[in-house]
Amino acid sequence: MDYKLIAIDMDGTLLNSKNEISENNMKAIREATEKGIHIVLSTGRILSSAEFYADSMNLSSYILASNGAVISDGEKNIIYRVPINKGSVKEVMRLGRKHNVYYHFYDETKFYTNNYIDEIYEFYNPRFQKQAGQKIGLIVFKDDEEILEREDINAYKFLFLDDDREKLNGLKQELLNTKGINVSTSWFNNVEVMSDQVSKGLSLKYLCNMLNINRENTIAIGDNENDLSMIEFAGLGVAMGNGEDIVKKNADIITDTNDNDGVSKIIEQYVLK
């Protein structure tokens, strides 16, 4: 098969357990790019974080961020955006408070929370990123209405975090019954909320249509539930060896883990050989 585009998840896929991109992964991506393959980072992360990692690889290509709610091109121009509507934002915030689960949401460059937790903020601003002069903004608010009244905010994605799975599942069940949103997860202790018009698969389909690339000529690689839609859309859907069982069940093939260069092994086997 003549593959023309590879969509790659970041956390648990491209990034190893230290949140780093291995030399083997970078080498494979560089060689695929030199062959004219579109390497697309497809992540639940905030756009500016994904752009930082792309810059670290000298990768100028499209990025699907916030689980596909926003797409930027190789020159960092936003070409597609689907924020959550304000009515749904209000209800999602209400449910977060009701279940007493920490949450934040983000736009392109900043994340917003009513409960600052240093550990979480540092995850979004790791030491090596701050050393490079890039820092993701933070807005701490006290009252929901303070945010809901602002016209300059695009809430692309909510992230709820709690190690109490029973409490988190209770919240998730109510969110699943809320109109206007799509609910997913990317780790055992989180719930993600986007517009019901958003998924990695839908954004990958949009990008393929724009680039006139058939789905059969695409590869998608991921590890978790929020990657399912793009794995099912792609011509070759790949689950990571460290991925969730549901992803492995729905993928065409399973590669090695994120700590053993699973991404590079797929690129080498299906694109570079």
From TrEMBL:
Organism: Paratissierella segnis
The protein, known as: HAD family phosphatase
CDD domains (UniProt xref): HAD_Pase (cd07516)
Single GO MF annotation: magnesium ion binding
Domain of life of the organism encoding this protein: Bacteria
One GO cellular component term noted in the UniProt record for this chain: cytosol
